[in-house]
Please model this.
Amino acid sequence: MLLLASASPRRRDLMTQAGFVFQVDSIPVAEERQPREDPMHFAQRLAREKAEVVYRARVEKYDASGEPLLVLGADTIVVCDEEVLGKPVDDDDAARMLRLLSGRTHQGITGVCVISSAGVEVAAESTWVTMLTLSDEEIVSYIATAEPQGKAGAYAIQGRASRWIPRIAGCYFNVVGLPVALVNTMIESAEKKLTQPSVI
Model:
C-alpha cells in the first residue's frame, strides 16, 4: 500500500494523473525552519518528518495484514534572496512574497521522502523560476482570487500566475508541488527492495 503523507490537492492530482495507486493519509507536523538551516535540508527534513509520522502510525496495521507499506512525504518551499518562503499566513504576507518575487528569478525546492520496511530514502528537486514584474494592481487582484493561500511563495504556477512565468529551468511538476519522475524512481527502488528475497 502506498500512502501519500500530504493533504495537498495538487500532489494528490499529480499522483493520480501519473497513474499511481495510493491513499491520502496526512498527519500535520510543525513546519518551522531551524536557525541557519539550509533550505534544501529544510525541505528534505520536513518531507521525512511528514512521512515518518504517518509510517509510525500505520505500519503496525499493514504489517498485520501482510501488505507492504510505503509512505511518501513531500514539502515544497520557495527561496529568493536566501529567504525561505512557505505558505503565506495572510493576504499581507502573500503581497510581501509576491513583491519579493516580482521581476526576479527564484528557486522552487521540493523535498521528497519514501519510507518502507526496506529503509528510508530522502531526496530533493530544485527548479529555477523567472517571474515577470508585477504591478501593485496585479498583486491586489491576484490575492483577491484567494489562489495564493496555501501555496509556497504565494502563487500557483499551474493557475492564474502562469501568465507571469515566462521561463523555468528544471522540472515543472516540482514547482506545482511534486517532482513526479523523481518520486517514481524512488518508489520503484523501494518496491524492488521489498520484493527482493532476504539473504542470510
User: Anything to note?
Assistant: The mean pLDDT is 94.
